[in-house]
Amino acid sequence: MRFITAGESHGPVLTTIIEGLPAGMPLNINEINEALAKRQEGYGRGNRMKIETDKVEVTSGVRHGKTLGSPVTFSVVNKDYKNWQSVMSAEPIEEELSKKSRVVHRPRPGHADLVGGIKYHHKDLRNVLERSSARETTMRVAIGAVASQLLSALGVEVVAYVCELGGIKGQVDVSEMSLAEIRDRANQSPVKMVDAEKEQQVKDKIDETKKAGNTLGGVVEVIAEGLPIGLGSYTQWDKKIDARLAKAMVSINAFKGVEFGDGFEVGRRYGSEVMDEIAYNAELGFYRLSNHLGGIEGGMTNGMPVIVRGVKKPIPTLYRPLQSVDIYSKEEYQASIERSDTTAVPAASIIAQAVVATELTQAILEKFPNDSFDELQQAVANYREYSKNPDMWLEEE
Ligand SMILES: Cc1cc2nc3c(=O)[nH]c(=O)nc-3n(C[C@H](O)[C@H](O)[C@H](O)COP(=O)(O)O)c2cc1C
Ligand SMILES: C=C(O[C@@H]1CC(C(=O)O)=C[C@@H](OP(=O)(O)O)[C@H]1O)C(=O)O
């Protein structure tokens, strides 16, 4: 399965084409729209989210509620486009530049503005920010919602929540909770945290930060349970599932780092405290007595839950803008103020869940035959049986 996304933040529509989904897979459009709505929620976002009500229009690849095996196309309308039509329209750039007022010419530190302008030779930095905007992640969440439906039908569930926001850490041990409990708790929380006790403290911090014209980042965690053993491969560097998941996570705007399982902490421990010892019983097959390594060994899923965390830096656009340089006058200036979020960590948890679900789905579709959904389901079921049964695995030819 592969996909491409297109669309500017204030252009008419966002689009994606997803190719390589099995035929005959039921697709619930309401569930896709629910995921899009969740991405829009979250305490600390700016006014843009009050304008948009993201909903997909399906324009190919689905008939009578099921995939056809042909490319699936989604689009989402940017309602804000009507307010930006004249800015986004084709007035000659010279005219705009002479007025300057509607041209972005004071690049924001931490955003793509300056480097994008130099690299693509754009005279108006709006041409950069329109596509570097995290508005693009709408489509990644739509794709992730399709992936989640495929995974769910194969017995794989993926959830995400915010573990830390603005330096305030949730204290609840989620390893004691079921995925359904984690999902319900995060869904109810305005900051998508599992720890209800910390919620008010986080909201207060967001309010204070907003008042001070500043912004906040945080950490999100994604957990995937029920994965078949052996997704990804040790045989080549770019096939390793941890490498692929790390790339997917860091591809989310403003994500700066990734950890698996106990994460960077493993570098401070003895080997005996980090390796997950192996056990076997007929019901479970091979399993581990712990999950310090977050369900991945040798670039492959090992059957334990995959646990991946990503860190998101604070939003670059500050209402108390940082120093910048006007690209025309070369004078020191305050960076441009675009309408902006104070924090988008809650939204980022939904996006992280989506990109992880997408990457795991791609790995499943690479491993198992999947022209039709029935074929895929049968192949995964057979392999699950095989992988937990040493007699099937080790029997003589
Ligand atoms: C959901 C979400 C919302 C964001 N909202 C804003 C925003 O309102 N203002 C802003 O300057 N950056 C925002 N960002 C971050 C920028 O998109 C990001 O910092 C920028 O594209 C530069 O990329 P980099 O931080 O990965 O280097 C947001 C990111 C995400 C994931
Ligand atoms: C539009 C979204 O997020 C946007 C991401 C973003 C950025 O610079 O990344 C800047 C802001 O855009 P605007 O200036 O239009 O308010 C955010 O609102 C979205 O998440 O759907």
Describe this structure in words.
Its EC number is 4.2.3.5. Strands 8-7-9-15-10 form a 5-stranded antiparallel beta sheet. A 4-stranded antiparallel beta sheet has the order 1-2-6-3, covered by helices on one side. Strands 4-5 form a two-stranded antiparallel sheet. The longest helix is centred in the C-terminal third of the chain and has 23 residues, at 345-367. It has a single domain, classed as Chorismate synthase, AroC fold. It is an alpha+beta fold. The mean pLDDT is 94. The protein has helices spanning 29-40, 48-51, 81-88, 93-99, 113-120, 126-132, 137-153, 179-188, 196-211, 241-250, 345-367, 373-387, 390-394, and strands spanning 2-6, 13-19, 56-60, 62-63, 66-67, 72-77, 157-165, 168-169, 218-225, 255-260, 278-281, 285-288, 296-297, 300-301, 306-312, 323-325, 332-334. The two termini are 33 Å apart. It has 13 helices and 17 strands. The protein is globular and about 80 Å long. Bound molecules: flavin mononucleotide and the ligand C=C(O[C@@H]1CC(C(=O)O)=C[C@@H](OP(=O)(O)O)[C@H]1O)C(=O)O.
